[in-house]
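Sanity check. The docking grid for fe (ii) ion depends on where the pocket ends up, so I'm generating a full predicted complex first rather than guessing from homology. Inputs follow.
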Amino acid sequence: MNNFTYHNPVKVVFGLGTLKQAGEEAAKLGKRAFVVSYGDASVTGTLANLKGLLDAAGVASQEFLEVVPNPPIEMVARGVDAAKAFGADLVIGVGGGSAMDAAKAIAAGVLYTHGDLWNMVYASHSNVTAQPPEKALPLLLIPTLPATGSEMNMCSVVSSTTRGQKSYIWADCLFAKTAILDPELTYSLPPFQTACGAIDAISHVLEIYINGQDESDLLHAWQLALMRTIVENLPKALANPQDAHARTELMWCATCGLNGWASPGDAWTPMHQVGHVLTSRHGINHGSSLAIVMPAWMTYHKALKPARYAQFAVKAMGICPHGKTDAELADAGIAAFRDFIKASGVPVTLGEKGVAEADIPGIIEGVRTVSFNADGVLASNPPVTAEALAEILKLAL
Ligand SMILES: [Fe+2]
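Predicted complex below; grid placement will be based on this.
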């Protein structure tokens, strides 16, 4: 097992109906809450309930409902100005990863003293000139889409429309003080968002499982259990959106998939680096981008770790191992995973999103610009060269 340092200070309030604790939890953190969310109907009811709870707890609030997917730094800057004008002493993020990540960036941006807000962002893995924020207003995060795990980690993924890049801010001050995880808030999620969120959550675990350290029994068992739980419960949530058990399992799996428990001692997220470029260059939503990358990536790499892929097939995808070699199990597991993604209504090929072979060099260049390390490769186990990435992307066509 790799050495690691683990620190996670987020207070988690979890369970059906826990939104009603938002007022009292907010009051412990501040008196003037800047509420960051979307301007569409998906969160209208939750925001109305939250406003009532904040009022009752004596917390003044102002909504900022300009969040869009892949939150652009320019939107974050408008939020920072509005939060300052309001005199916010607390930021509440309500929504999926984009709302929570925007809330984090705004909370840090209000107190940022190193110039342009894009300076907070690790815009290139080979260029460490980023100046991450050291301070942020207290954060209360209320996810309504189980996916990114942002509610319990120190990362904020943002974009720059002018630069055509998507990357991340990574800083201790981005940990929320409190996260309220109420699975009831996910009952009204559309099926496609539910599926994309679940597949994103799987990807956070899968890419550590297959690209991370080789010697960690408990870690691999935990990763497989997380993936299996999502594979079992996504179809139930799609069949019955108000399935409390399925919604509860999916929500906690998403949080546990990216709060550090599934990746102690591992830091690489190579498939996400490719997914981010598919988003920034081709407008493919985050969950779909990973759904496209994962099966192709696994097909390319399966022969390197046949036992690992066989375990994925048996323990995550439920393939019967009887009479099959590890290589046969690996193939069956990847095929079952691809079918699982398809059945949930999410694309599994670049072609479905209008991306052709001629686009591959541009995608590789995008990955190279942001994510290749000083050795000219994408950090992974094993490292991925530009040539290997081209083969993977061809497999994804
Ligand atoms: Fe993700």
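Relevant for the grid: The pocket of fe (ii) ion is lined by residues 148, 200, 203-204, 272, 286 (CB under 6 Å).
Also worth noting: The chain has two domains: 11-186, 191-395.
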